[in-house]
Amino acid sequence: MRVTQRVAYYLVLMTGLVSCTEPISLDLDSGEPQLVVEAEMSNLLESYVVSLAATTDFDGISDRSIAREADVSIIEERSGESLELFEVFPGEYYSFGGDFQGEVGEQYRLRIVLRDGRTYESQLVQIPEPVDIVNINSELREERFLSEDLVEQRVFFQDITARLDNTMQDHFAIFDNRGFVESFIDYPTCGGFDRNNQGSPAGPVRCWAFQDPIIQDISLTSNLSVSGDNYEAVAMSIPFDARGQYVLEVDVKAMDAQSFNFWQQAKDQLDKGDGIFDAPFAPIVGNIRNVDDPDETVLGYFNAYAKSTAQICFEWPAIGTRPTPIVSCSTLCTDFYAPAVFELPLADELCP
User: Fold this and answer.
1) What is the DSSP string of 57-119?
2) Residue of 251, 114, 110 whose CA lies nearest to 179
3) Among the listed residues 315, 214, 328, 279, the one whose alpha carbon sits nearest the alpha carbon of residue 15
């Protein structure tokens, strides 16, 4: 889930508005570009991603030129071992291969050296113990409202809750997710052959369309005021416009208290729902600094998570389903709904 994109946009937008409690005249073309960083790693052996950009105007992130060809690395504090990330897309850096894997209890630092020599480092972040997921549950919810032409509309959601273990020490976490929706296309007769020309009658064909992210909201949880061996946390609400079964993977990404505070401030301001010219009730401070100029404003955060994942399968009700698209014989289901796959072993395990 790229909730960081929404937070990064907010940080950019509010940079010049922190003191805007009175009417002002804005010069939308002025101001030095500010570096924007979205970065995270985890305790899993996976590709880590660092996204760099710069603010150039009032519209937000619109320039990645100063973020090109940077040296980006993640450093383990205890051993000094370093993981180099490589630029795959403009301003997008990924780690590949190797055996560098975040470890629970270890501290890490992000280091960025731009082409012009400016050097940035994050504060140390520690990977905490992961939060065990006891189970995942879903409940169907319906909302009704009147459209502009006074026609009643019905919208359905799946409310997802996660029961989490509470036997460990204080923990803080953010929810993330990805989904696979059962999708169909229908072929015309195609001369008695299917789209692969295998000699079977044409008709509806199924594939699994990948959806990431499903939601953009920030969903946090902590056990600071919870008793008992486990507790239930609201993970997310998922709107649907699909037909058939849905496989949802839910990540619980444990973080340290400092990172949690950053996300809580971002969530509070986003949930506040005021206009863009309303001053934020608290500045949102990231953990990345210019090594040679600590007064420079750098937007964003370097996160280090301990991930736990659970899956659930549910089926949409018949109400509100979309009609099956009718396509030409040469169109593949996986192309029509790309990215998609024909087979999903996870669905075979989870879905009835």
Assistant:
1) ETTEEEE-GGGTT-EEEEEETTT--EEEEEEEETTEEE--SSS----TT-EEEEEEE-TTS-E
2) 251
3) 279
**Are the C-beta atoms of residues 102 and 45 closer than 8 Å to each other?**
no
pLDDT tens sequence across 3-19: 555 555 455 544 444 43
pLDDT value at 279 more than 70: no
Contact 312, 136 (CB under 8 A): yes
Residue 63 is predicted with a pLDDT of: 63
Where is 248: in which H helix or E strand?
strand 245-255
Coil, strand, or helix at residue 53?
A: strand
Which DSSP string corresponds to 254-296?
EE-HHHHHHHHHHHHHHHH---TTSPPSS----SEEESS-TTS
What pairs with residue 326 in β-bridges?
A: 186
pLDDT in tens, 191-211: 554 445 444 445 678 899 998
Total H helices, total E strands in the chain: 4, 19
Binned at pLDDT 50, 70 and 90, residue 316 comes out as: low
Highest mean pLDDT among 111-120, 149-158, 227-236, 242-251 belongs to 111-120
Q: Are 181 and 211 in contact (CB under 8 A)?
A: yes
35 vs 187: CA distance, rounded Å: 50
Distance CA 68, CA 89 (A): 9
Pairing of strands 125-126, 230-239: unpaired
